[in-house]
Amino acid sequence: MVKPLLFGVYEQASVGVGGSPSLWTHPSSTRIHSDRLPFWINLAKTMEQGGLDLLFFGDVLGLYDVFRGNHEAAVKWALEAPADDPIIHIAALTSVTKTLGFGLTASTTYDHPFAFARRMSTLDHLSEGRLGWNVVTSYLDSAAKNFGLNYQLDPSQRYDRADEFLDVAYNLWEGSWADDAVIKDKTGQTYARGDRVRRIDHNGEYFKVQGPHVNAPSPQRTPVIFQAGWSPRGKEFAGKHAEVIFVGKGTADATRSGLAKIRQNAEAWGRNGDEIKALMSMRIIVGKTEADAQRKYEAIQSNYHLEAQLVSYAGDTGIDISRYADDEVLSTASKGHASKVERPIDGHKPLTAGDVKARFSKFTRGEETGLIIGTPDQVADELGRLAGAAGIDGYLISQPVSPGTVDDFVELAVPALKERGLFDDKPKQGTLRSRLNLKGNDRLPTEAYGSRFRQSA
Amino acid sequence: MVKPLLFGVYEQASVGVGGSPSLWTHPSSTRIHSDRLPFWINLAKTMEQGGLDLLFFGDVLGLYDVFRGNHEAAVKWALEAPADDPIIHIAALTSVTKTLGFGLTASTTYDHPFAFARRMSTLDHLSEGRLGWNVVTSYLDSAAKNFGLNYQLDPSQRYDRADEFLDVAYNLWEGSWADDAVIKDKTGQTYARGDRVRRIDHNGEYFKVQGPHVNAPSPQRTPVIFQAGWSPRGKEFAGKHAEVIFVGKGTADATRSGLAKIRQNAEAWGRNGDEIKALMSMRIIVGKTEADAQRKYEAIQSNYHLEAQLVSYAGDTGIDISRYADDEVLSTASKGHASKVERPIDGHKPLTAGDVKARFSKFTRGEETGLIIGTPDQVADELGRLAGAAGIDGYLISQPVSPGTVDDFVELAVPALKERGLFDDKPKQGTLRSRLNLKGNDRLPTEAYGSRFRQSA
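YS: structure for the whole thing
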């Protein structure tokens, strides 16, 4: 049976976005004005009117300074830069939208869980439960250096810290205030029953937090937990915590087998792995005709610049490709540097600088590159086919041209998806967790790891 | 010559607000719904339409748990609780207002300057320069315990850390990106000139931060710096950094002499102390007639509860007044606890518990209690007189009844103030710094301490 897919948009609070970093130079793009609200309000309203589910923000905490050993090319190309803090964007957009969901990428490596849990509770309150959190542990040495370290913690330490960070956050969100604590009784002069609010007294390796949480329970309490790590440890973490997996580009087979491992890990935590949703990163160029789509593709290709891609490659992998001749084999430059996607971006085959340049010289369609080009029918068919083949529940669409990509998707692709039963056209409402059809409806389900922190009734 | 005053509103992202903590029980109050946006949008729009200058949020990072040694009474009375994070409120309100300024209270004691500077730059961008920052060092032991400490750092260490925090923040805001760095040149494929963006390489006692700042320069770069500390060290800090002083309630004479000291401290930093603005905390009950004002006062008094005031007193001073008989003299309970206002709240006279209870049993008008009651003419006259006597530039109005107080102020007091030339009725626009008529217009003035971090042209 065909089931409707979920559709979100991947964004960054930057001029240049990962995946299509130089495309702010496209004549239709207004991203150089993305430091002002109209750019974002326009996007959010287009998405909401089009019935899309989720505006998701990626994030980085430093500049891409591996290429040529400094930040100059990253700044020239606005490569994931400037990196404004997307929590501000999401908060600003909650007051001009009613039903759109939001996903925030935020790192457990450089923040404090008490302050972070407080910000998230506040945002979940004001958005009336429309918030998701993509848990990341960060991957740039430049970020570590902005927070007092010389190099990053190694990936295993970062995940240990992340696990403890989640323990503190769950305890604040789920455990500190009982369901019957807040009674809002004006005549009885009681906002909440003090004996139903408790300290958490966490005393761990990385954090010591007394509590109580200073926020009353928000509609979802714990925001919807997203995760994107793909290393063995990342998949363990996902099996324990994730309700939604954000899957990078890759073949249907690789995606399906990676997700199977995460689902298997979830079973070890007493969860039903099949209830974890997966959204795949995708770029879509849709035209009314094949010729129209091809024209759009060519305009994109002519504003797609290799150097920007190489700056991005260098930052993601830690390999300063500028120092290699085309026939030299690449090797990781700095020990302990984990690549963005936590897997060798090119598998295990020895790669030369020339191979990488050839790959990134063009915006190429295909499963491995995460690009679909075609008419509405072609796009809808391919989205349906790939979802089935990869075992995913929907897509996070990256915008090669912004504004433009989402407008085209809503105008052209959505009707074709609806015809096929691949797009849910019921009016959208409620919390993000309920909207994504996740187990538990508004709150974490009983068997979630985070639910262990709840007070008994 | 009469000059127009500045008017802001003091708020907290809480149900109970400091100064009138139990008044969410007033029949007209909707504060129990202040966890949703309509409460705040209504306030912000009323202020903007009324031509007020600034919505200012106080903040705390823990519950008031001194009274009876636990948090139960604080939760019952919603005393500065729940404490949502007001940066989310300000961000949410930027997209539904055009000209209103915002003030955020944020502590330098528990945050990291790189992350904080990034959030502030983002908010200054999206608000188009409408942001102020009230620099505080925190005063609750309960907050320290939420961030891994057993007790607070002593006040002198907190200010040392604050000074270094400001150095890092100024360097990121003022020094990292030159004025000519961002060129947004699409055809030239250059967002910003990499050689005009520099690292800050800060290596101090509390922080080590490489940079560059990941945000492009925002309209004000450094948000307008507010400060409220009144201890000798607080006044030193204010002389060095503050553009606006937030003055608590107190007599005109005490205010004038305290401000004179701050202005004198500013001269030592090469600043003109007279350019520092001062806003005084004030509660205003205005009615069409004296009888009308009196009726409003009585409704407030009957929802003003002593226990909530005592919970507040205990948290502010560190003295658990619940443990004292009425005839016992109070003394500070925990060593190293600094009172909220950084001065003995009652001067140097030995005070008994009974004295404090008598004082807080009523909502009393007067300079020392910061409460004005009267007709529009009476209120306007008193605001004008007190401003002259205390040497201040305007007021931050606290709301005994919300909604209500600000609505009354705009409807009744503002016309009377305009008649006297005490309210600027020019249309409001521009950055907060320009709107408050601060030196430098949009940016910190040349002689500001923070301007020392700028790159030469």
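YS: worth flagging: Chain B is about 35% helix and 15% strand.
IM: good catch. Also The radius of gyration of chain B is 22 Å.
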